[in-house]
Amino acid sequence: MSITNPDTSALDADVIVVGAGMCGLYALKVLRDQGHQVLVLEKGSGVGGTWFWNRYPGARCDIPSLEYSFGFDPELEQEWVWTEHFASQPEIERYLNHIADRYDLRRDIRVGTGVTAMDFDEATNTWLVETDSGERLRARYCVMATGGLSAPNRPNIPGIDSFTGTIVQTSLWPADGVELEGKRIGVIGTGSSGVQTIPELAKVAAHLTVFQRTPAFTWPSQNKVLTDDEQAAIKTRYRELRREQYESFSGTAGTTGAVILQFATDDHPILESTPEEREAALQEKGFSACRIWTDTAKNLDANEMAVELFREMIRRTIKDPDVAEGLSPRGFPLGCKRPVLDTNYFETFNRDNVTLVDLRRDCIEEITPNGIRTTHGLIELDVIVLATGFDALTGALTRIDIRGCEGRLLRNEWADGPHTYLGVSVVGYPNLFIGVGPGSPGVLATYPPQIELQIGWIADFLRYLGEHDLTLAEAQQSAQDAWVEHVNEVSIGTMFTAASCNSWYNGQNIEGKPRVFLPYVGGLPLYTARCHEVAADGYAGFTLR
Ligand code: N01
User: Fold this and answer.
1) Which CATH architecture has domain 11-150+389-542?
2) Which cofactors, if any, are listed as required (predicted)?
3) How far, in Å, CA of 46 to CA of 19, rounded?
4) Which residue ranges make up each domain of the chain?
5) For the chain, which has fewer Cβ within 10 Å, the N-terminal or C-terminal residue?
6) How confident is the model at residue 266 (pLDDT cuts 50, 70, 90)?
7) Closest C-alpha residue for ligand 1 atom 10
8) What separation in Å is there between the alpha carbon of 283 and the centre of ligand 1?
9) Residue 407 zone, left/alpha/beta (φ > 0; ψ -120 to 50; rest)
């Protein structure tokens, strides 16, 4: 895109925010309150981001609803009623629409407007943002609220476009639904999305075939309806709960006991346990028996012993031993992939109308007009559901042509992995801020509290720039290099970076993506403290002009 209009007298906004999911809505609210003229551009036809797009049957959050919500307004906290411990997609979408209405946000949001390109104009220190309708908009600052899990991964399977039935991606599920009743349905993928939708699809399908490349580590969510008393008990101590969230490693206060991202902390090594102790753990904890030991987070032998308890639970749950073996994770450690919470996932494979195709023994050769052909033959299908995940953390940014100083292109500069300062800023891209981006805790911490901390920090930064008559902020190379090194350093020795671990956390779900652990695993408190130190030090590590 060439810059045709360097006239800054007519800025379209002080700040353009890209995306109207949780992060974009909060950015609009807080920046507008601060007096900025803000314009939000959103590709979807409504607000909600992840919770707008992922409408597949069974879509549900795996963080307790009372925690997976904003804490910036105590009145909002008190008035909103969550009906379940783990909220469903429609309920979260309603909540985000309520926020858009309650704070009169819609007047500054343009829905149905995708951003295709962004150019930094060095003559005026402004960004020119091009939309999919060809319109060009200019702003001093941009906040990328494009989401970590928002660039769908459509698998490159031969013949995929030849299928004559319905083919649908979980993350692009049509708002008016998909005809599923009595159909022969195939699902490809058994990550969080697949695991959530499989039990729901099985209930309505004539037959459901699950094409599984890697078995999931998944635990029963024990979701339940929230009673008025349970809700009131939390609402009376909401300030304390929020403080616990901000101060916890992953932004969770553990109101359900389901703190799924952490291992046990009591001194309880599985390597020193007896068979009787392990059996007692299975009897008492079921699938969670593998998560109570202290040595599994860093020791691969201990981890494998714990995984064996998980496999044993699968054997005890699944009637057919072959299917049980097919569903059993092997060859990669517990804790390397994002854990999943489910509702009757394993039990679903005991149904007569469900078949597992274990792609470790049987490969997908092609998709034909009538179904999916594997090495063992053609499986005829009416509907194919792609639960194949995302080009995580970087995809939403690299799919936009973002050009910084001297025409540099972000996609090219991140070809060997993302380089950021604090996950929010990139050398050569002044005045561009990333919400919950790579190099920040991002997907490892509960989004709403993390967004409040991070977008709040960005808003403070913009206020500081205004108060000091500054119009440019750019990360410095040395600060960025040190941060990237720190992000890498803290990931070493965790299961996330085990050699046998391929996941979207390290880009290995996408062909050609470099193997780099993308989020910051130092925890939310350490991250926040570092951001505050930088601010207190006059935004150390940034060049300000
Ligand atoms: O995506 P995934 P997801 N042929 O990448 C398989 C969040 N989330 O949408 O593991 C065959 O985890 C792939 O196999 P493999 C949450 O953070 C949260 O399910 O690469 N299979 C894998 O099984 C989550 O972690 C919620 O070998 C192919 C699956 O597709 C993240 O989003 C709900 C394939 C993709 O799993 C992503 O979850 C939903 C191919 N060509 C999502 N390509 C909750 O809050 C990919 N696969 C609960």
Assistant:
1) 3-Layer(bba) Sandwich (3.50)
2) FAD
3) 10
4) 11-150+389-542
5) C
6) low
7) 214
8) 30
9) left
CB 419 within 8 A of CB 480: yes
| Diameter over CA atoms, the chain | 76
| Structure confidence by residue, pLDDT tens digits, 27-50 | 999 999 999 999 999 999 999 999
pLDDT digits (tens, 9 = 90+) for 430-470: 999 999 999 999 999 999 999 999 999 999 999 999 999 99
CA 43 from chain center: how many Å? 18
Query: Three-state SS across 102-157?
Result: HCCCHHHEECCCCEEEEEEECCCCEEEEEECCCCEEEEEEEEECCCCCCCECCCCC
Q: Pick the residue whose CA is nearest to atom 18 on ligand 1.
A: 192
Mark residue 125 as left, alpha or beta (left: phi above 0; alpha: psi -120 to 50; beta: remaining): left
Give the residue ranges of DSSP H helices in 182-338. Answer: 192-204, 228-235, 238-247, 275-285, 300-317, 321-326
Residue nearest to atom 38 of ligand 1 (CA): 192
CA–CA dist 251, 216 (Å, integer): 24
Alpha helices in 424-476 (DSSP H): 447-467
Count the neighbouring beta carbons within 10 Å of the beta carbon of residue 173: 20
Atom of ligand 1 nearest to the CA of 155: 41
Conformational region of residue 389, where left means phi above 0, alpha means psi within -120 to 50, and beta covers everything else:
left
Give the pLDDT band (50/70/90) at residue 8: low
* Residue 110 tokens, joined: 């343009």
